């Protein structure tokens, strides 16, 4: 962990950086292999698939610094970070506890892939610590949650998760994508591993797919060795773009925090909107918890329009600034309907149980003018 720079704004610019031939920006080391010393082991060889090129090294140092971890590892996507981490610490016969409302890709991997490997799981209401004990088994090895759930923006009892896990010797993993290290550093709270889809806020420009795992060095090293075998490494140019995007992370996230809160308040008072889900609103069921845990409430919110599914689809069609596209956390304001995209693989019954209806719209605000983003939604909702 870097201790040279105290504030995240400085860490994002300087941590891990190296001057090469006087270049202020770290160049792309467009080489798959590097000269190794005679006698080096396989894992000490410098090779792109082993995630130890100069471009990887810069990112690993920077990501560890901004989340207060001992080490970090970048991967080819957020799902590569999630799946590799789960497969590193779970084996046949093990049991996993995980939050009941998760990103659809994570939900699909757990429900469709883990059983085939002989790994059992149970979903928990992560807001109710008293209920977790009933699902605990002698074979339980880990607890998995999200800092803000996708797409309903629920906030788990995160301190309770850490307490519960420590009491029972469980590994804690958290997907911190929605909050980002600017708003929340879960390792400071006691989580063992923080995972990100770096495609989102960390890169922030909608132009690469990447992921990362951050935590104690021994945990990250185990994930790295599993990643070496699975092959989900990040290429040099994507490393360069991710490092470039990270420099402006704090600036982007703080503006997105402010714009999302303003848009959420506007939508909450709009007659065409039935409900708005955003942790920064006093009406959010876990607002007090979010206030105590986070530096900001993030750039993602969800709204449910009045009417039927066709009306929700029509609102998306009428938007002019907001683009209808998957993903989140970038400089563009993006909208989509989770029931049709991110959580389409869930059954209708599963979505209904979680509260992901056909009229639900997820919004990820970008860095456009807050005035114009609000005006865009005003005109789209007025077209009813």
How would you explain this protein's 3D organization?
The chain is globular, with a radius of gyration of 21 Å. α2 runs parallel beside α9 (236-246), α10 (249-268) runs parallel beside α14 and α12 (309-318) crosses α14. The strands form two sheets. A seven-stranded mixed β-sheet has the order 1-7-6-5-4-2-3, with helices on both faces. Strands 8-9-12-11-10 form a five-stranded mixed β-sheet, with helices on one face. It has two domains: 8-246, 3-Layer(aba) Sandwich (Aspartate Aminotransferase, domain 2), CATH 3.40.640.10; 250-382, Aspartate Aminotransferase, domain 1 (Alpha-Beta Complex), CATH 3.90.1150. Helix content is 37%, strand content 15%. The protein contains 14 helices and twelve strands.
Features:
384 residues, alpha/beta, Aspartate Aminotransferase, domain 2, Aspartate Aminotransferase, domain 1, seven-stranded mixed β-sheet, five-stranded mixed β-sheet, 14 helices, globular
Entry summary:
This protein is of the alpha/beta class. Helices cover 37% and strands 15% of the residues.
CATH topology of the largest domain: Aspartate Aminotransferase, domain 2
Encode the helix/strand succession as letters: HHEHEHEEHEHHEEHHHEHEHEEHEH
Q: Separation of termini?
A: 53 Å
Radius of gyration: 21 Å
Structural class: alpha/beta
Tell me, briefly, the overall form: globular
The figure for the number of domains is: 2
């Amino acid at each position: 962990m870097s201790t040279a720079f105290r504030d995240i704004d400085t860490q994002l610019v300087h941590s891990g950086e190296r001057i090469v031939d006087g270049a202020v920006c770290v160049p792309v080391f467009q080489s798959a292999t590097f000269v190794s010393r005679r006698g080096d082991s396989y894992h000490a060889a410098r090779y792109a698939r082993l995630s130890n090129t100069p471009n990887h090294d810069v990112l690993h140092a920077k990501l560890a610094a901004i989340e207060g971890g001992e080490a970090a590892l970048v991967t080819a996507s957020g799902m590569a970070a999630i799946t590799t981490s789960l497969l590193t610490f779970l084996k046949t016969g093990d049991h996993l506890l995980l939050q009941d409302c998760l990103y659809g890709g994570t939900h699909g991997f757990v429900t469709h892939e883990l059983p085939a490997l002989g790994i059992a799981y149970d979903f928990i209401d992560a807001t109710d610590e008293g209920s977790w004990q009933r699902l605990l088994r002698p074979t339980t090895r880990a607890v998995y949650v999200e800092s803000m759930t996708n797409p309903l923006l629920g906030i788990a009892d995160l301190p309770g998760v850490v307490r519960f896990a420590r009491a029972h010797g469980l590994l804690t993993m958290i997907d911190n994508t929605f909050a980002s290290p600017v708003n929340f550093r879960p390792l400071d709270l006691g989580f063992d591993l923080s995972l990100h889809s770096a495609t989102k806020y960390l890169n922030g420009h909608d132009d690469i797919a990447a992921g990362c795992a951050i935590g104690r060095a021994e945990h990250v090293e185990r994930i790295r060795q599993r990643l070496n075998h699975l092959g989900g490494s990040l290429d040099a140019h994507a490393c360069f773009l991710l490092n470039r995007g990270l420099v402006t992370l704090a600036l982007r996230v703080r503006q997105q925090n402010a714009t999302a809160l303003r848009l959420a308040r506007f939508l909450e008072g709009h007659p065409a909107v039935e409900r708005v889900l955003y942790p920064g609103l006093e009406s959010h069921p876990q607002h007090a918890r979010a206030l105590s845990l986070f530096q900001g409430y993030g750039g993602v919110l969800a709204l449910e329009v009045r009417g039927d599914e066709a009306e929700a689809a029509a609102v998306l069609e009428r938007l002019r600034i907001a683009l209808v596209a998957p993903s989140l956390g970038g400089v563009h304001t993006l909208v989509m309907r989770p029931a049709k995209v991110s959580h389409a693989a869930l059954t209708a019954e599963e979505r209904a149980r979680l509260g992901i209806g056909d009229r639900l719209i997820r919004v990820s605000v970008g860095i456009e003018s807050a005035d114009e983003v609000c005006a865009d939604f005003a005109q789209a909702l007025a077209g009813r």
